[in-house]
Amino acid sequence: MSWCKYIVGDSRNLEVVFKSKRLRAADLILSSPPYFNLLNYDNAKNQIGQNQTYDEYLLDVVNVFQQCYRVSKPDATMWLVVDTIRHSGKIRALPFEITSKLSEKFGKNTWNLKDVIVWNKGKNIPWHSKGRFKNQFEYVLFF
Q: What is the spatial distance between Cα 92 and Cα 98, in angstroms, rounded to a whole number?
C-alpha cells in the first residue's frame, strides 16, 4: 500500500516529522503510551518515562498527544489504550490524568473525550502477588 508510512523517531518531535516529510493530516491516531518507568525499551536514550519524575512523564505524554491533535484533521479520532499504574505505593489513574491534563493545559483546543471502553483482556500472563488483585482489563479512551 503506497499510502502507508512507517517512521521511527521521537514522538516528542511529531510536528517536525510531519512537516519535514510533508505528511498529510491524520484521520486516526491509535496509541498506547509507555507506562512511566515500568518498561525500558532496549535502553534507548531519552525514553518518555525513564529517568523522569511522574509529573515530567505526564507532561511529555500530554504534549505528544497535543501534537497528535495538531497534525490531525478536524474530524480525526484518537483511540488510546492505557491503564492505571502503581507509583510510589499509590494507584495513579493514568487514563484520567492524561485527559484532565490535556483539558487543563489546552482548554477546548485539544482532544475531546467521547467515551471510555473497558477492555476485558481475558487471558494474560500468570499472576501471583499477595495483597494485590490481578489486573485483567485496560481502558480504551475514544477521543
A: 11
- Ranges in the chain, pLDDT < 50: none
Taken in order 119, 96, 59, 83, the sign of the CA dihedral is: negative
137-142 vs 72-82, strand pairing mode: antiparallel
pTM (two decimals)? 0.85
Give the integer Cα–Cα distance in Å for 138 and 97: 15
Which amino acid belongs to residue 75?
A: D
Which cell is 112 given?
475531546
* 2's grid cell: 503506497
Q: N- to C-terminal Cα distance for the chain?
A: 27
Question: What's the pLDDT at 131?
Answer: 65
Give CA–CA dist 61/137, Å, rounded: 21
